[in-house]
Amino acid sequence: DDDDLEIWDFAARANNSVGNIRFKAKSFQEAIAHYEAALELRKQNHNLNDKAENILDGEEITGLCTNLGKAYFQQRQLQKAMMLFERANRILMAEPHKNELSVAENWIQMGNVRFRQKEYDEARELYNDALQMQRKVFLHHDETHSIILRTRHDIALTYFKERQYEKGLDIMKDVLEKKKKRGDCDLCEGSPCGCFTSDEGK
Hints:
Elements: H1 2-24, H2 28-46, H3 58-74, H4 78-94, H5 100-116, H6 120-137, H7 146-161, H8 165-182
Helix pairs in contact: 1-2, 2-3, 3-4, 4-5, 5-6, 6-7, 7-8
């Protein structure tokens, strides 16, 4: 009945919130347990399956998949992380009015997995796709928005890993020059190079 649905809804949101807290504390296995519980409760609450999830409550399911994917990524369970990011991507792309920044950020998460798997060409393709979408959103920022700079930084890293140093340096020099003008914090935050201080569950 309606009371049961409200209880399941509250329990799902509570588990997601606790998962975010445990993620921030770097207790990733505990975060995974809470995110998985929230996802299961959300599915029960709406009687969802893979075919219906992009119609009902897609935004919340996307958020849970992304959070869980990030936690698995931190545990280096890369295949599980990619499956969750791909699931989130299917839901995001099925939305009639796409949130372009959310789509781009999800592609970056997928690119981070490919980067960790040493599939640098595939990672760069995902980063470039994300960059083009970000440029559409931040059209008036003249390439100086911190999100665009971070993505270009990640693209440069893929060239370095492939020993295409000139291409990587050209991008990195431009990014660092723009970063100095902005006075931004470290661009390594949230990047695939291993510094994940700001890449927490949301």
